[in-house]
Amino acid sequence: MNRAEKAALQLQAVAVLRMLKETRTYEELSEVTGLPAGDLNRYVNGHVLPGTERAREVVEGIGRDALADELKARVSFDDEGYVDNSAVVFDQSFLDLVAPVAANSFGFERPDVVLTAATDGITIGAAMASYFDARLAYAKKSKETAVEEFIESRQRLASGIELTYYLPACALDAGESVLIVDDLIRSGETQELLLDIARQAEAPVAGVFALIAVGDQGMSRAQELTDAPVGALSTFE
């Protein structure tokens, strides 16, 4: 790890601790993290940065659990099982914290392009792209009028409805690595279409990530379609 990567990790840890401190006293934060309250005070107030190993522990362990709990508190389901995750996908500062935690927790290699589906996937896609310093590309269910060439992926769902996504061909070049990101994975159909777009573009897949997994069907489906890491921040049964 070079000095820039070390500093970035330390600052990410501080950002996670500041988020946790918003709803906790230092004593409560100490119980959650296992770190001394005095040290936490100095980290949160910017007087000193945590060491590399402590920072890694905060980001990969404490941070992942804390963000998963926060996400669960913000998500609701209606009587028909539809998910309302508006309090998550519209909070860019929260998503900016998720990106380094997800990257470090699931071992995603730095991609050239983060690929997602419009529209709810765009904000988490933007956060991941910013963290990795990668380009963001998003597929849509309709074609842009002025774009001449598309990568098209089509699938007929069990319900009989045909789902199609279009990505402008210029958005993804052969050989560019792709991290597929979305806000939600349930059946895995959207992820399958995005993986197919990457395949058609001859772009190797660096991983598949979702904020929320509902059940394990979608995760299993994605794992069958790629050897790259597949992960979700929080899982709902």
Task: Report, as a whole number of angstroms, the end-to-end distance.
Answer: 38 Å
Count of runs of 4 or more consecutive helical residues: 9
Largest sheet: 5 strands, parallel
Rounded radius of gyration (Å): 19 Å
Helix content: 40-55%
The outline comes out as globular
Number of strands: 9
Which sequence of strands runs across the widest sheet?
4-3-7-8-9
What integer is the average pLDDT?
Answer: 93
Q: Which ranges are low-confidence, i.e. pLDDT below 50, for 5 or more consecutive residues?
A: none
- Which structural category do the helix and sheet elements fall into? alpha/beta
Keywords: Glycosyltransferase, Transferase
Protein name: Phosphoribosyltransferase family protein
Organism: Halohasta litorea
Domain Phosphoribosyltransferase: 96-216
Task: Explain what this protein looks like in three dimensions.
- With 237 residues, the protein is of the alpha/beta class.
- The protein is 46% helix and 22% strand.
- The chain is built from 9 helices and 9 strands.
- Strand 7, helix 8 and strand 8 form a beta-alpha-beta unit.
- Helix 4 crosses helix 6 (92-106) and helix 6 packs across helix 7.
- The longest helix is centred in the first third of the chain and has 23 residues, at 52-74.
- InterPro entries: PRTase-like, PRTase_dom, Pur/Pyrimidine_PRTase.
- GO terms for molecular function: glycosyltransferase activity.
